[in-house]
Structures are given as C-alpha cells and as structure tokens.
Amino acid sequence: MLLDSAMYSETSSSTAGLGRQLPSKLRDTYGFAIRPQHLQRYRKYASIYKEEEMERSERWECFLRIYGEENAVESSTLRAHEEDENNKSLRKLESGDTLGQDRASSFASDETQNSAGAEQKLSGNIREVHCKGSLGRDIARHAFDEIESSADADKQRNEKIREVESEDTLGQDRASSHASDEIENSADADKELNGNISEVKSEDTLGQDRTSRYALNEIQKSVDVDKQPSGIILEAQIWSELRPSLKTLGQKFGKFLKRRKQGEVVTIDSRQDQSPTLESNASTIRIHTLANSVDVQMIKDLRLEAGISYHDVSEVVGDNCKYPSRSEEASEGADASSKGTYSDNWSSEGFKRCIEKQEELSAENEELKFLVRGGVPMGLRGELWQIFVGAQACRIEGHYNRLLSECGLTGSAVIEKWTNQIEKDLPRTFPGHPALDEDGRNALRHLLSAYARQNPDVGYCQAMNFFAALLLLLMPEENAFCFESLGCTSVGWE
Amino acid sequence: MMRTVPIKVVLLGDGRVGKTSLVLRYVNATFSEQQTPTIQASYLTKRLNFNGAMVTLAIWDTAGQERFHALGPIYYRDADAALLVYDITDKDSFDRVKSWVKELRKMAPKDIILAIAGNKCDMNSQVDLKDSERYAASIGSSHFNTSAKSNIGIEETFLDIARRVLEQKKALAENVPASTQRKTMVIIDEPPPPPPPSKCCS
Prior knowledge:
The structure holds two protein chains of two kinds. Chain A is mainly alpha-helical.
C-alpha cells in the first residue's frame, strides 16, 4: 500500500521535494531517509555497496600507506632539526612576558614531552615546523595544533579553555581587545596565538558539543583507513586539520593550486611589504564588507588572502623544485622582499629537477586519478574534497570567527534580509536528518551567514542550504566554510 | 473521445507560505510537516472532469525566495491562471501578494485569472481576513482560506480556478473565430519571395 502510493507520486510529479518522514531505521549510510519508492532498490544494492566500499577503503589505505611511508622517510631526517627549533622557540617564548606567550611556552614544553610518543602522528607537522622554524610564532601554533591532536588532547584543551575563560571574563570582546593589545606588545610573534585564543573562545561558546552532529564520524571511525584515534580531532571542533596520512597529499595539492595562482602570489609579496600582518588585510576586507561595496577590490582582496595562504603552503613544503633557492632563503631568515624574486632564481638546474620530480609524481597522479574515479570511501570523502579544493591551504586563522561575530553584532537591513531567509530554510534543510539537530542547525546557520557575510553579492540563495548541510555532514564548520567560499570562487560563481 | 482542455496555473507567493504543500495536498493528497524548499520550480499535473469536460491542470509551483523573483515571468507567461498564496500568520507575505498582483497586471496576459489563497488557516491569523477579501474583490480575484495540513479549501480553490478559466475560454471561443483562439500560435513568416519574373514568353 505504501509502495503503491509512492509509485503514484513518482509518476504524477517531477518535483524533487517529496521527502517523507520515515522511521529512523530506513536511512542510508549518510543518514538520509530512503524514500519508499527506492526501498527495494536500496535493499538490493546495499550489500553490494558495502562490499565496494570495503574494496575502495582498502585501495585507498594501501595508497596512503605508501604515501605515508615516503612522508616518514622525509620527516625522520628533519626530526633532529625539529628538536633544535623547538628548544629555540621555547627560549624565545619564555622571554615574552604576556599571558599568551606563557601559555604557548607551556604548550611547547608539553609538546616536547609528547613528541617522543606521537612521532608518527606528528610527522606531517614536523615538516612544517622545520621549514617555518625561524619564526617562533609558527612553532607555537604547531605546538598548539599537535597538542590538540595528541591522545590526551581533550583534557588539556578543557584546561586551556578554562584558563582562557578566567583570563577573559568579559567575553569575546575582551578576547579581541586582548588580542590587539598583544599585537602591540609583541610585534609579530603573537598573531597566531591570538587567533588560537579566539578559536578556543569560540569553540567554547559556539560549538560546545557536536558529538551528535558527528554521529557520522562514528561511522567514519569504523571505515577509518588510518586506524588512528582521529575521532578526537573531529570532536567538538569547528576546524580540523587533515589526518597525518593525508597531509602529504594535501600539501601536494596546495602546491598545485598555488602554482595556478602564482601570478597573484607575486603581487601579494609587494603587499606584504606594506602591511606585514594578515590582520590588516583582513581589516580592509571587513571595511569593504561593512560598506557593502562589494566590488572587484574585495574579491581581489579575498584572492590575495587566499594567495597568501597558498604562499605559506609553499613555504611549508619547502618546495625545492619550484623555488630552487627557497631553503637557503629560509635559513637566511624569511625575508619578505626577497620573495618577489622567485623568477630570478629559476635556474635551469632547478628546472631539470622539477621535470624529474614531475615524472616521478605522474605515476602517483595516475594512481590517484584511478582511485578517485573508482570512488572515494566515505570516511575519507570530507578530507579529500578539502584537499582537492585546497581548503586547508586557504584557511585564514580567525577569519571565520570574525565573520561570525560580525554577523552577530551588526543588524543592517541587508543582513536582515538574508538572516530571515536563512531562518526560514533552516528547519527545511534535510528535515529529519539525525545530524541536523539543534547543534547541526546552529552550525548551518553560522556557515550560511558567514558565507553571506563574506560574499554579500551572492548573499544567501536557496539551495545553498542543501549544499552547506551536505558539507557539514562531512566536515566541521570552518572547513566547510573554506571549502564553500573557495569552491564557489574557483567554479566562478562570484 | 473528448478533447481535454489544458489549463496552466502558476503558484506565486512568498517563501514558506505553503505553495508546495498546497499542490502536493491537492495532487497527491499528501502532507509533510517537513517540506523542503522548492528550488526554481516544480511541475505537477492534475486531471479533472469538470461538468463533463476533461481538464488538465498544469500546475507550476515556483520558488518563493525573493532571489527567484526574476524567474517569475518564465512561469506566468501565457498562464491561464495565477494562484497567489500568502501565509495568514505572516503579514509580509500578504504584501508580497500585492506586489505580485502589480507585476502580473503589468507583465502577464491581460485575461489571466487571479485567485488568492490565505494558507495555514488552521493557525491564528495575523492578517485581517476581511481586509484581504476586500483586496481580492478589488482586483477581481477570488479569495480562499486554505490549509494544506487540515485539507481545507484546496479543492474549492482549484475548482474555482478551473471554472473561471473554462468560462473565460468559452466566452472567448464564442466571440473570436476559431482560428485566432488562444493557444494557437500563428507564426507569420516572411512573405514568400515573389516568383521570379518569367524570362521566356515575355
């Protein structure tokens, strides 16, 4: 009887919105309700799908293991350097007298204790630390990240949050003013730390408990290719780093995307000279947004910001084939003005090495292509999407939180227009989906309003909610934001 | 075999007033508390036997968001009737109906049949129903209180639309010769080139 009526609705209409509430057991792997007319087909193919998924997972696991091994080989040579750098940073940070710096140094010392145990997991970050080592702030940031990803991260983070809470009893405003104070106090070393402070704050206020939204991650864990406690990373966060085994892949794609935008990167360098902090770039964007004069300049600014982050990636990777003299530059101490002269350093020798490496990589690329065409296992999907779009590379620390706080603070007419619409559509997005409970809807609200804020030209459009919700099923808020803003840019919706 | 009369009805109105729910209730006799937003538009048909005349209602259910407003003309162009839906719990949605009426008067076919439906009449009204009925009368439209959830007034609304469209068509058919009836498009092509002047036997 049920099936009969379903057949009727199928034949008599072509609308897509015939979602019908079903008991929770009739949901597919992604948590979507199965429509009665598809029930038979689902039952027929569910086991086949499961088998294929297993197969896919195995293939990817194999591929990533090889990748990870390469990564390990490279990083083991770097570990010695890392120890040095870590100590150096400790000294550097201890010399500071602000609270934030104290905090960071204690993290760093924790980190040195942890690093013995969690070597494999840290290897991705170690590379980063090595390449960016000359700047203490980066060490502090990575120490922070690593602590988050280490096994006892939860406990420590909670302590941290409490710490920050007690410091900033007046809330987020205090945190930001605190942040600006610290920028004044210590010229450049603190910027990242402040980002982290606000991150911890907002994690505390916005995303208290997302365990239910990451019910999917529970499934992920079972499919988890890495057999690592990645659930810890994904829990209760609005931003998550890639799992270590995917880091190399992510860096490679960051590199690739950066290469496409190389022209813009060079222009940034000149800009960086004028305004050395990301903070100032971001503030220009904010001005533009507030004035609602979204023009070419703003888009350009955004691209520039994105470009900066791409640039960081290339620094991180220390890509010898692309920039032959990059490592020397790094040892001299990162000099922003010298970055403009990449093309001069483009020696024929480096070019040859580049070609060689390309050939080496092409085999891997082919394999990757094959794997992607065969399908991405569900557990990896969110992260791989991010890699292919370059979302990880394009993250600007604190940018998302800033957008969110702006959404909360200002209430101009334009903003009202889309908040209304968003509120209307929130309960209508994948209704009944288990992941979209109170927390899930909040995350969706944040994501949509942040995107509308960043890109007021587009603002909010119906159907963006489905897109955003789908992303939220696979990744945390801020990752999804980077993905969305970037994905839309490269697709050319701007 | 009786000829079926196609009637194109377009649903217009603000977002989340229940356009899709109305149509689904009417066509499929279903109602979902958790209806997803319509993107662009959806299309459903319903066949009626109206006093012995076979009628096919082709119902275009449009998206309500302001952003999709510009797509309106695609759907109401050569529509026979427009059903303007508002939410009686939402005053703004009624203002939206008024703006739609203005636009239809300007852009749509002159003889388009208008009907206004105040949806969600199972809830407490925020809109003065007398007022809206007066407004409907002033623009020559009928007004219905409907509820997709409780299945109130929906049949009546669509039947009224069908009746009025049929009456209009009948009147039109009586007045106008069959060849220039609505729905039959006469394409006037370029006049055929004059036959070349005959060369021989001048």
